């Protein structure tokens, strides 16, 4: 039966990459283990996640693994007492990890700093005591308007240690945007920096904070803490502002961990806003740390010698889960870079991998598409032989960019793990493992303990090869607990659109092997002559052309067909736009997808409009076309 909400699937990717024998031999979770874990989770979901929770330290164990009595207001590990920072720091300094590097940081100008677990533990404790001296107590909120600095990690952990709720605001946002977040969150303290380096420029954040706080939009705000970074001159209000260095200088290097209920809030983080107004997502201590810890160790097949680098900004959920909390919970070394990927030239990321011997590199498809515009000459200049696993997150990973990443960065020796998850999920949900058979462009299967499906609007599973709506049918530990200032959001935005299922807002299909293919956001579907086509498929077809680096496709009205596609394209560094290339790209799409996809026009661009998290702003392009 055909439903109007079922999508046509036009793109067929037949390339398959099997894991190298050595990868299977050395894997912590081999294919048999993976099948057994799925069987355990399918037969007893709570027992599976209880086993994962037992790997962490708790002050008091739980009375119940999952309380679903008030679904969809699910509660995990009810009755348990814990603190995520105790698991990220304290337990490691009692082991051989004490003097292991926890954090390697590199500034854009080339300076660097390193912290062992013991050094990071002491730095966090000092700032935790400093926050307590400023009057911050359990349940208070602290806004962090910070770039990628060690003090950002320290501030996050110091807040969580004393039971305060941190909320990072991306450092690329304006004073106006910060003002809105401060008004919404009502923090007791704001932590910021005088300035930081980005693409060869100094970005002045303290100045933006001062503008944001004009007319006192935050009733509860008492203090602003400023970190020295760029040593630029800033105005300091003697009644409100404090230098970070002055606060921590005389504080003790020991601070007690606040004993938190498993479901006490840990942080508030806003969504990127690609699908409407950003929502303030609230995550809690217990379930979040269990989900992030298990997925970090399993997906990335963690080894004692690994150096892990997630290139995401800590202002987004990927930075929270897999730059800060995940690596520290697992006791590994995490790398952080302050600046721009193209500064001073387009080999900066490859230079960092080579310099520090990074073994696992987790980035975004946007980052890869940006860098592949420059070809292979930059990665060829660096020794990338320490890499053993590559990963991606954030948006659909078109097959050609996947292949470029695999061949030019992984040298055809590293599996590319294309992961699907969201701010709301807190942890990776659908992903290959290093031992999985890979298909470029597919996020493969749901992880053990995750019940994902592709359904129509009535909740019926759609046939293999047909597109529908991506849903999660059962709760998971790292799931968000609430939406800030919106008591109805759980039902209205997430669990009520397709009753009893978490509606992710993405359209997807499953192939005959049960592999998931993300086709785009549900509000980005093209409807051409009654054929519903995911925008990601058309964009993947475009980027499979050797001259195309990035592409975005939107629907525009058509009197005959109802809607046709318009494409916006950026080219690789040595390609030239022309009428001949325009025709060649249209013909290329028809060869790849068939005549169903009617292309009205292709506009060549130097760059595409993007959100601060790097996702393309289709709405901006649509509004421009409609004006």
From TrEMBL:
Annotated family: Belongs to the ATP-dependent AMP-binding enzyme family.
Keyword Thylakoid: no
The AMP-binding enzyme C-terminal domain, residue ranges: 537-615
EC code: 6.2.1.1
Record bears the keyword Cytoplasm: no
GO molecular function, one term: acetate-CoA ligase activity
Root EC class: ligase
Domain Acetyl-coenzyme A synthetase N-terminal per the UniProt entry, residue ranges: 36-88
GO biological process assignments: acetyl-CoA biosynthetic process from acetate
Domain AMP-dependent synthetase/ligase: 97-476
Top-level taxon in the UniProt lineage: Bacteria
Pfam families for this protein: ACAS_N, AMP-binding, AMP-binding_C
Protein name per UniProt: Acetate--CoA ligase
Keywords, comma-separated and alphabetical: Acetylation, ATP-binding, Ligase, Nucleotide-binding
């Amino acid at each position: 039966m055909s439903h109007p909400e079922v999508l046509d699937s036009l793109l067929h990717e037949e390339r398959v990459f099997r894991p190298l024998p050595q990868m299977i031999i050395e894997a912590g979770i081999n294919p048999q283990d993976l099948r057994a874990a799925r069987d355990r989770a399918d037969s007893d979901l709570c027992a599976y996640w209880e086993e994962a929770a037992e790997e962490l330290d708790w002050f008091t164990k739980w009375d119940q693994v999952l309380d679903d009595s008030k679904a969809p207001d699910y509660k995990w590990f009810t009755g348990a007492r814990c603190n995520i920072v105790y698991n990220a720091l304290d337990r490691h300094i009692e082991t051989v990890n004490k003097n292991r590097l926890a954090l390697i940081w590199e500034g854009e100008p080339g300076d660097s700093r390193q912290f062992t677990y013991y050094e990071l533990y002491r730095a966090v404790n000092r700032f935790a005591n400093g926050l307590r001296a400023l009057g911050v107590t359990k349940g208070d909120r602290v806004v962090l308007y910070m770039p990628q600095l060690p003090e950002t990690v320290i501030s996050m952990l110091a807040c969580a240690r004393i039971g305060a709720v941190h909320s990072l605001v991306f450092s690329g946002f304006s004073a106006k945007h910060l003002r809105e977040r401060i008004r919404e969150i009502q923090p007791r303290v704001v932590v910021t920096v005088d300035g930081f380096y980005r693409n060869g420029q100094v970005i002045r954040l303290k100045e933006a904070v001062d503008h944001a706080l004009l007319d006192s939009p935050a009733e509860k705000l008492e203090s602003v803490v400023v970190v020295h970074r760029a040593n630029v001159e800033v105005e300091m209000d003697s009644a409100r502002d404090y230098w970070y260095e002055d606060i921590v200088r005389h504080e003790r290097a020991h601070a007690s961990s606040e004993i938190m209920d498993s479901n006490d809030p840990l942080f508030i983080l806003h969504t990127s806003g690609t699908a409407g107004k950003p929502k303030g997502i609230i995550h809690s201590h217990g379930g979040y740390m269990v989900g992030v810890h298990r997925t970090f160790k399993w997906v990335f097949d963690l080894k004692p010698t690994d150096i892990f680098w997630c290139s995401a900004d800590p202002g987004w959920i990927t930075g929270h889960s897999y730059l800060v909390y995940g690596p520290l919970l697992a006791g590994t070394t995490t790398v952080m870079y302050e600046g721009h990927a193209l500064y001073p030239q387009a080999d900066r990321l490859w230079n960092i991998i080579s310099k520090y011997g990074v073994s696992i590199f987790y980035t975004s498809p946007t980052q890869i598409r940006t860098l592949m515009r420059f070809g292979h000459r930059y990665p060829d200049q660096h020794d990338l032989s320490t890499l053993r696993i590559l990963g991606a997150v954030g948006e659909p990973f078109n097959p050609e960019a996947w292949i470029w990443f695999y061949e030019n960065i992984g040298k055809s020796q590293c599996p590319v793990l294309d992961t699907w998850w969201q701010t709301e999920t807190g942890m990776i949900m659908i992903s290959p493992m290093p031992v999985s058979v890979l298909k470029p462009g597919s996020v493969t299967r749901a992880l053990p303990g995750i019940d994902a499906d592709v359904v129509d609007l009535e909740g019926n599973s759609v046939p293999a090869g047909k597109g529908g709506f991506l849903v999660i049918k059962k709760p998971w530990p790292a799931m968000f607990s609430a939406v800030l200032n919106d008591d109805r959001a759980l039902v209205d935005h997430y669990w009520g659109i397709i009753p009893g299922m978490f509606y992710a807002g993405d359209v997807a299909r499953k192939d005959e092997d049960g592999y998931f293919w993300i086709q785009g956001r549900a509000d980005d579907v093209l409807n051409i002559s009654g054929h519903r086509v995911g925008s990601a498929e058309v964009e993947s077809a475009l980027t499979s052309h050797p001259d195309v680096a990035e592409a975005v496709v939107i629907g525009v009205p058509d009197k005959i067909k109802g809607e046709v596609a318009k494409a916006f394209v950026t080219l690789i560094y040595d390609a030239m736009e022309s009428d001949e290339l325009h025709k060649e790209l249209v013909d290329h799409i028809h060869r790849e997808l068939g005549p169903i996809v009617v292309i009205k026009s292709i506009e060549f661009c130097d760059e595409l409009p993007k959100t601060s998290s790097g996702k393309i702003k289709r709405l901006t392009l649509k509004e421009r076309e409609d004006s």
